[in-house]
Amino acid sequence: MPPVPRPTVPFTARAGALFEVLVCSDFPTQILIAQVLALAGIQPFTPDHSYSVTFVVALSLSDAILLVGLVLWFLVLHGERPGDVLWGRRPVWREAVTGVLLVPVVFLLATLVLGLLQHFAPALHNVARNPLEALIRSRADALLFAVVAIISGGIREEVQRAFILHRFEQYLGGGPLGLVLFSLIFGAGHVIQGWDAAVTTATLGAFWGAIYLVRRSVGAPMVSHAGFDLAEIIRYTLYGP
After folding, report:
1. In this model, does residue 71 exceed pLDDT 60?
2. pLDDT tens readout for residues 164-215
């Protein structure tokens, strides 16, 4: 019996999906919000040329609200139920437990990638100190960035990743292609932390994206991502860089 050919996706559907992916890729929303913050007098750098805590927090939280809102709007616009796309049919509590259990796995993966890079490509360690970690100067700062890590990292980035992978599956060449491309973009967004950090982040993004593709729920990646970021903040607060 010959294989059933896949239906041809209309060009307009592909173009619309590509537009939505680009809008939700982070760059347009962050550029827009940065301009709004600049008009409000909130600049990215302080007089001593370090990052502004106010700017970083305002940008991160505003972008999270805007981007999640865009994802929900695009899904509803297509007649899709956000709950079905983002959470699937698995019990939320089970996905949360899975996410907690994945935190040590993520730590091992990050340690392995960084170790391999330090051994085989030490030149990629081009930033001596993570400029974002340097913003944590007190426990109050650590608490503030913990909130940012949960909302901007755990929630926003995993909702964003799930939506983009979903659109790739529907219109843009499949989930695996979307996983590779968006992981590269995800890593590139962390270049200010160093090339080694960018490669490690791209790898972790691919891991969380693969979990979503397998489980069809953002629950486990969301909890795992937030847990990893929180653990990193705690480690830095207690032990430093």
Report:
1. yes
2. 999 999 999 999 999 999 999 999 988 888 999 999 999 999 999 999 999 9
Q: Is the pLDDT of residue 3 over 90?
A: no
Where in the chain are the domains?
A: 11-239
Confidence (pTM): 0.92
**Distance, CA of 109 to CA of 200 (rounded, Å):** 9
